[in-house]
């Protein structure tokens, strides 16, 4: 077989890995997660000029800008997006293996974490969450916030460790989710409400106005409870709306309005209220709560422990 002249041979593919400083991949990972030079420097415990220098090396290594300046910080280029899809899962795996070398002990956790809860869960579970972690991880500083339109972005960036909500309508490739509890819907009314001595049916409840909880990212325009009544053929009047559960509870205490809740609600703390369960089968009142977290934590022992802890908190709080 005749030899191909060297001048006509196709050039060998560039072996980028041979000369790659693997520390640069760590910088790439943090830059992609933060998309902000200052925050990346803070996480890496280096100066901003040092991060900028590493970025210049990454740009040379991959023949691409990778990140460009925008008003909010940095935006990844298409090449950076492509690299992140292939590299980050591998780096998260390495991170999990290295971190798993230490024996996990909840009582030794000494850091701050943020948990986002569906607004109804914020009100129902915050006290139980505090008591649970005070007992099982006393050094852990837990910050509880309400789930809102920024929560998904916070989970993706790592500002929020886990978020607890009903199953989301949209899917997010960067997030994992596991079921932490089954939830039963209930209603709250004042102690001497006329409905207390009647069957708790959609027809009977439609005679009274709803005190509606507004949730910033999905129920400002519609209400799940109103949709349930519509589906059953009954028009439900919304008598009062608020983003604040305490305000709604005060309205319910002093009126014939009712409020939707779950069997996690701490009814024992509100002697002037009664929690009623529906007497008819309404599938929409039975749902599951899920924990959402970034895929980089799917093998994290701490996340497994945290999800199990949240599941136990739900069980302890359910009436």
From TrEMBL:
<keyword id="KW-0805">Transcription regulation</keyword>
<dbReference type="Pfam" id="PF00126">
    <property type="entry name" value="HTH_1"/>
</dbReference>
<dbReference type="InterPro" id="IPR036390">
    <property type="entry name" value="WH_DNA-bd_sf"/>
</dbReference>
<dbReference type="Pfam" id="PF03466">
    <property type="entry name" value="LysR_substrate"/>
</dbReference>
<feature type="domain" description="HTH lysR-type">
    <location>
        <begin position="20"/>
        <end position="77"/>
    </location>
</feature>
<keyword id="KW-0804">Transcription</keyword>
<protein>
    <submittedName>
        <fullName>DNA-binding transcriptional regulator, LysR family</fullName>
    </submittedName>
</protein>
<comment type="similarity">
    <text>Belongs to the LysR transcriptional regulatory family.</text>
</comment>
<keyword id="KW-0238">DNA-binding</keyword>
<dbReference type="InterPro" id="IPR036388">
    <property type="entry name" value="WH-like_DNA-bd_sf"/>
</dbReference>
<dbReference type="InterPro" id="IPR000847">
    <property type="entry name" value="LysR_HTH_N"/>
</dbReference>
<dbReference type="GO" id="GO:0003700">
    <property type="term" value="F:DNA-binding transcription factor activity"/>
</dbReference>
<dbReference type="InterPro" id="IPR050389">
    <property type="entry name" value="LysR-type_TF"/>
</dbReference>
<dbReference type="InterPro" id="IPR005119">
    <property type="entry name" value="LysR_subst-bd"/>
</dbReference>
<dbReference type="GO" id="GO:0003677">
    <property type="term" value="F:DNA binding"/>
</dbReference>
């Amino acid at each position: 077989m005749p030899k191909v002249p060297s001048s006509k041979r196709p050039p060998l593919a560039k072996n980028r890995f041979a000369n790659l400083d693997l520390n640069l991949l760590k910088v790439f990972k943090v830059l992609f997660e933060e998309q902000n030079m200052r925050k990346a420097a803070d996480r890496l415990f280096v100066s901003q000029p040092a991060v900028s220098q590493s970025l210049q090396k990454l740009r040379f290594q991959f023949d691409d800008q990778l990140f460009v300046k925008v008003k909010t910080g940095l935006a990844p280029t298409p090449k950076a997006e492509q690299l992140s899809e292939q590299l980050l899962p591998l780096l998260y795996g390495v991170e999990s293996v290295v971190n798993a070398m230490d024996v996990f002990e909840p009582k030794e956790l000494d850091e701050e974490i943020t948990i986002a809860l569906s607004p109804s869960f914020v009100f129902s579970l915050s006290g139980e969450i505090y008591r649970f972690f005070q007992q099982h991880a006393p050094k852990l500083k837990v910050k509880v916030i309400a789930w809102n339109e920024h929560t998904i972005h916070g989970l993706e960036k790592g500002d929020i460790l886990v978020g607890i909500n009903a199953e989301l309508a949209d899917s997010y490739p960067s997030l994992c989710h596991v079921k932490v509890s089954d939830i039963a819907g209930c209603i709250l009314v004042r102690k001497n409400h006329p409905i207390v001595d009647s069957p708790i049916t959609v027809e009977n409840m439609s005679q009274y106005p709803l005190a509606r909880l507004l949730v910033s990212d999905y129920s400002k325009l519609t209400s799940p409870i109103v949709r349930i009544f519509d589906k059953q053929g009954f028009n439900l009047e919304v008598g009062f709306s608020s983003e604040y559960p305490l305000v709604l509870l005060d309205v319910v205490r002093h009126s014939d309005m009712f409020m939707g809740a779950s069997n996690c609600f701490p009814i024992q703390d509100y002697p002037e209220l009664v929690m009623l369960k529906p007497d008819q089968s309404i599938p929409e009142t039975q749902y599951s709560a899920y924990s959402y977290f970034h895929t980089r934590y799917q093998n994290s022992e701490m996340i497994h422990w945290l999800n199990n802890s949240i599941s136990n908190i739900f069980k302890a709080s359910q009436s």
